[in-house]
Amino acid sequence: xxxxxxxxxxxxxxxxxAATGAIxxxxxxLAGSLWAGASIVGSLTFATMVLxxxxxxxxxxxxxxxxxxxxxxxxxxxxxxxxxxxxxxxxRIADDCSLAFKGLxxxxxxxxxxxxxxxxxxxxxxxxxxNPSTVTVFRKxxxxxxxxxxxxxxxxxxxxxxxxxxxxxxxxxxxxxRYVLLVGLSGFYTLMSGASPSLVRAFLFIxxxxxxxxxxxxxxxxxxxxxxxxxxxxxxxxAIASTGFQLSYLAMLGIFTVFPHMQSWYPESRRxxxxxxxxxxxxxxxxxxxxxxxxxxxxxxxxxxxxLLTNLIVMPLTTLVMTSALSAMLxxxxxxxxxxxxxxxxxxxxxxxxxxxxxxxx
Length: 362
What we know:
Elements (H helix, E strand, L loop, with lengths): L6 H19 L4 H25 L4 H21 L9 H19 L5 H12 L7 H9 L3 H4 L3 H15 L6 H21 L4 H18 L6 H15 L7 H15 L1 H6 L9 H27 L6 H27 L5 H22 L2
Helix pairs in contact: 1-3, 1-11, 2-3, 4-5, 4-9, 5-16, 6-16, 8-9, 8-10, 9-10, 10-11, 11-12, 12-14, 14-15, 15-16
């Protein structure tokens, strides 16, 4: 029987090769990287070709081949000159929209300037207007990940678009239109917000999941995770050295593997159970921290002691703030004056800051 290597094995081997390249060549000079890379990749390629010729159907051969591919891709990306995307017309449009988006926020009548700065950070990733004291409060309370524009924010936007478009039904033309809208807006928002590794990861998850849904394939979470990992590293192997990339994929790995088991520990009920919602949020936070906590400790020598309390309070507020803020901005872009929504957004942001200040002082 012919043995096959699935997407899990391919992506793991490729990522291992890229990680090996980051460890071996991450701190070498350009000349050292060229010399060491040429000799090591040459020998690995030769060994791979020998293995392919002798035992072409063994899974180990394929895994070793993709390991060498990951190593070679990382080396090629690290020693090559970066390609400028300034003249890329979609990128230029995204940059112009980002400036217009920020300008729209600056013109909105928020009662408090610090709330405006927090909303700008949550929606665009621009933290230049934040007071240092606010940044300190987010850091001490363990909510710094809220300010760093990541897959969480794109996930909230994706959820909003999905719920709005769900009223149109599931006719074939509606499904195709919904797919184009979801993927197009998610990709454009990723470009507009700077395309950080965690945002690219979230966009790839949306692209792969929605493509599988449109074509009638099963959306298996681990396969989506592995496919996104392979595609992102193939496009940019050096991203594996980014802390944001590592934390993003580790968090999602915890959600896909541990969270379903923890979620099932709470008994199912047909009635509305608010405690079930609280348990799900707590299980989600714990699942993420189990995988990201060790890396955060190694990189930053810190661990958020009150992460569970922070996430239980801040995550729902963040969703409400972004929902009201984006709704207000859509109305403002249409020429209306969303005074009520602006005040609601300001109040929600103020409540979030107040809660974080209490947690930070504990």
